From TrEMBL, chains A, B:
N-terminal signal peptide: none
Full protein name: Glycoside hydrolase family 127 protein
An annotated GO BP: carbohydrate metabolic process
Ranges of residues in domain Non-reducing end beta-L-arabinofuranosidase-like GH127 C-terminal: 506-621
Domain of life: Bacteria
Organism: Nonomuraea deserti
Length: 624, 624
């Protein structure tokens, strides 16, 4: 099977071929900034944490080398595996000897820790050797294995870490022996290994890995694991995968599971898998997706809520859920060729995902709400980003996605290229090389310069985002085809250009009326960016919580080259009102609300919030 | 100390003297109905469950008599204690030999289970004898003890259960030896024993019980117990009691704690305790109280949320929190003489509390939301009332309050009587006896007939609820004094009457604009009753979730003698709109909502919901 150096899904059934991390060079804009701080700040922090958080010491314990008690959660190994994957992609993008060294050294520890039969999990080996594979509902053993496989695939594609791949294969073979040929039935309470097994199959050609992934998906909903007390929905074990109509339970589990479901479809052609996954996708997008692209409405169980249950303040929107959604949508994009999946990737990437990391790359959100009140109890958890977490699933997950972002920008067909995300830089594919010049998403113009012209007729397909009300190509209004792309098929000459102009007019967006939690409100968007109102940007004394927007007022664009703490941004100002309602006894009255006084309200892109004072924030603001 | 047969707070510092359960006979209206079904259905079910749920079998195990494993939670004993208290009050109200027998038999089991040193807890004696008092953060040992003390006090006041009191005193003495004179410092993670110790002091005169209650309150906020992982706010251990400004954490814990704080003030006169409790009360009422009187905005930690975080769908509003709030407000009423506490008791009683039980008394809510969607996932927990719970704190708690409701109706002073709640029946106090004739809360007239006239000048004080916009006494408009009562002081003659007419005009109520979750909505109230819209009452095909109210439309009162499944009620009809917004892709658009078609919408009192089909329900409905 052809190998592509990227977080890719090369498959006969995919409509398009992904590009490798080395085929797309991102040279500017927010994505290049994220990759720079990932390289300079986040990854070094993550590498340090692999010792401090216990991830590597635990594995040394399992190898019989370390001292002291097991540290952290039973899935602590997975932090290391995600970190290894991040380092592997980063090595492919911007090689450094320390990356290869880290992978090599970690692989050596893993090799020594791994049991002769291939099993590897420091928690179970150190703490509960008698319980291996007996607590699948919460053991995370296959979940950890999955992250190991993904790290090994990334390292192998990047040409480093043969040792890691050997460890991964031995563990995968052990899983096959127990759960496929051995006849044990089970699933992991936390889906993840399914997509990883398919990727390992793509790398190695070992069909048993694909078969095991398929079996694990078929096993879900049969009650093979115990209920952890959080209910069968929590682990998507309430119904067979092909029968479940809507995403439920722990959001990250559901979304990783979906990536696996589409992956198995892509390799086996089982249409029933694609069908059920698309059915849930449509329900999720229409009723359970935040405007930021985030998923997970409840802290309770870190889970999806009911349809239209989308509270802004108690939104969970785990950073890992944003990543898992991008993985799933990428696979759906390759499977269906429909730009709506690239649209959702863009929305998620620039909002739910990007907000997870501070401007300096050193602090992270686990939970990404759409509102923070100005009136927090004196003693409440303030909900600011943190350097690390006891359960640190998010930071290394963020790092592996940022390092591999180039893989999500474009795809090729035999004679053509689809541009899914607009970033300045170069994209090379099959004899063609394009240079892309753009200040997007701050500016509306995307200029595509043909640096190397392909032979013969060749199609350039440009995604036209659903939000772009008026789109120009080379100065002429265009409408995308039903798949969301505008295509130009012709012979190309070196040096010629295509100019795409997207509609970045700021827009006031209203929620569906059944989203109770934000009725009577609007949000501001511009291009792919969702905006929010932060206390730091409001004129003296006006509380964000007192703002009321005027739907008729113009939205004024205010570019800022270097806003303190934030960097480059585009603010939006509008004429609004400040409505102060007194606090007196029960907050229920028989007279409607007070009127307000005029103020100017200023909004900042949501992904740049919480880089200043930690004050109030709102995406959805009352309408006057 | 004088003993009153009621859930009382007799204290030198209380402004008023409570009445006993036998002094107030409730003969009609919803409260009499609740007492009847409590007697006929709920208590018999509860008595059965004492065997089935493991509560009594666990204690037999502790006595060395039973077989089989410990059943249920570590606080399983408390279910029995609350059930015993319910039975004791019910015996005082409507004696039956089986009640005295049950108490006697249970007391005998407890006596045999109790250790010679007085300690008693079946979980720790059976499962973890080595861990006694070492896991106070979650052990519930003192919490269980508190419920034992309250049961013993109730039984003693009802003249039964000497054996129970002896058991309780031995355990209380053991607590005193360990935590007061013995010098051990600690608190129970779940407050409750504080108010119970004060009641036991009131019954026995043993000052050490009061002192221990005071010490446990002083100990809170000092970090004497471990964090269970839910944070220090969860158990109100984040700050000393006198410093905490707002209710936080697990709602039932906070509210039981407050009852203890006011109880200790009432007996010691420590004003700093009353002050801090009132400060939190005011903050809670203004920012953390549901319109139903419910408390607890989060499933996560069963806890209070931030100020104005009051989601209707994910409201927790545990039934036990409503009970605890009534306990606290009763003590504040006696301490301050301000009718606002009786107002909140009424709101809580008729809404948050009353909704907890089905019309037949056989099913209970643990969680009392203000909204249930019509569009629940096929596999979601439907949230209907249940016969019992693994954690069954609520049902017996409900039973003990219903049995003792008479104790919350009126209080006396030397020469006078305050009527706090309006119920048909008789109230006797100090040579006076009043007969009250009323169809309240369905009807607006309360007729008070003097059956026995008191000697000399005597004051009759009538609570004028804050919601009653136009109140008449004997046909003349009156306004209450600042304390919320309208008083008549004069000489009284047998047979004379006073007629109070409250304003039961239905009203449209708006939320404070900072309650994000219900902005742009209104609720309907009539008298003390909050209304809701249930699917069962709406004309064919119109979904509750599509309703939009017209604030200018009249609210029509529709009395129903016997609505199927519900019984007597008063419905409210209004002209509204049905607004159907299509589902198509992301639920965010740049065009505002659709308009609707005219429909008649019908509301039912919230406390009577979920007695029909289990469909959608809303207290707060969009405004057109």
């Amino acid at each position: 099977m052809e190998q592509i150096l990227g977080p890719s899904v090369p498959s006969g059934r995919a409509l398009w071929r992904p590009l490798g991390v080395q085929d797309v060079i991102i040279t500017g804009g927010p994505l290049a900034r994220w990759q720079r701080i990932n390289h300079e700040a986040s990854i070094p922090l993550g590498l340090e944490q692999m010792e401090r958080s216990g991830a590597l010491p635990n594995l040394r314990r399992a190898a019989g080398e370390g001292e002291g008690p097991f540290q952290g959660y039973r899935f602590q190994d997975s932090d290391l595996y995600k970190q290894l994957e991040a380092v592997a992609w980063e090595h492919a993008r911007a090689p450094e000897p320390r990356y290869a060294e880290f992978i090599e050294q970690a692989a050596a520890v893993l090799e020594r820790a791994q049991r002769p039969d291939g099993y590897l999990n420091s928690h179970y080996q150190v703490v509960k050797p008698g319980k291996i594979y007996t607590e699948l509902e919460y053991s995370h053993e296959m979940y950890c294995a999955g992250h190991l496989f993904q790290a090994a695939v990334a390292a192998a594609r990047a040409g480093i870490g043969d040792g890691l791949l050997a460890v991964a294969r031995r563990f995968a073979d052990h899983l096959v022996e127990v759960f496929l040929t051995g006849g044990d039935d089970g699933i992991d309470g936390h889906a993840e290994v399914e997509t990883a097994l398919v990727e390992l199959y793509r790398l190695t050609g070992e069909r048993a890995y694909l078969e095991l992934a398929g079996k694990l998906i078929d096993n879900r909903g049969k009650g093979l694991i115990a209920d952890t007390g959080l209910g069968k929905l929590y682990a998507q074990d309430h119904l067979p995968v092909r029968e479940a109509a809507t995403p439920v339970g722990h959001a990250v589990r559901q979304l990783y599971l979906e990536a696996g479901v589409v992956d198995v479809y892509l390799e086996t052609g089982d249409e029933s898998l694609l069908d059920c996954s698309l059915r849930r996708w449509e329900d999720m997008v229409a009723t359970k997706t935040y405007i930021t692209g985030g998923h997970g409405s409840r802290h309770d169980g870190e889970s999806f809520g009911e349809r239209y249950e989308l509270p802004p303040d108690r939104a969970y929107n785990e950073s890992c859920a944003a990543i898992a959604s991008i993985h799933w949508n990428w696979r759906l994009l390759l499977a269906t060729g429909h730009g709506r999946h690239a649209d959702l990737i863009e929305r998620t990437l620039y909002n739910a995902f990007a907000a997870s990391t501070s401007a300096d790359g050193l602090r992270f959100f686990y939970v990404n709400p759409l509102q923070r009140r100005d009136d927090l109890a004196e003693d409440a958890y303030l909900g600011r980003r943190r350097e690390w977490f006891a359960c640190a699933c998010c930071p290394p997950n963020i790092m592996r996605l940022v390092a591999s972002l180039g893989g999500y920008v474009a795809t090729t067909t035999g004679a053509g290229l689809h541009l899914h995300q607009y970033v300045p830089g170069t994209v090379g594919a099959g004899g063609a090389r394009l240079r892309i010049e753009t200040g997007y998403p701050w500016d509306d113009l995307v200029r595509i310069v043909v640096e190397e012209a392909p032979d013969g007729e060749w199609k350039l397909a440009l995604r036209v985002p659903a939000w772009s009300a008026a789109t120009l190509v080379d100065g002429r209004p265009v409408r995308p085809a039903e798949d969301g792309y505008f295509s130009i098929r012709r012979r190309w000459t070196r040096g010629e250009t295509v100019e795409l102009r997207l509609d970045l007019t700021p827009r006031l967006t209203y929620p569906h009326r059944r989203i109770d939690a934000v009725r009577g409100c609007a949000a501001i968007e511009r291009g792919p960016l969702v905006y929010c109102f932060e206390q730091a940007d409001q004129p003296g004394g006006v509380a964000v919580d007192d703002l009321a927007l005027n739907p008729a007022a113009p939205l004024r664009v205010v570019p800022r080259d270097d806003l303190e703490g934030v960097g480059r941004t585009v603010l939006i100002e509008t004429d609004a009102a400040a409505v102060v309602q007194p606090r007196d006894g029960l907050p229920y009255t028989t007279t409607p609300q007070a009127t307000g006084t005029p103020v100017t309200a200023t909004a900042i892109p949501y992904f740049q919030w919480d880089n200043r004072d930690g004050g109030a924030m709102r995406v959805w603001v009352h309408l006057a």
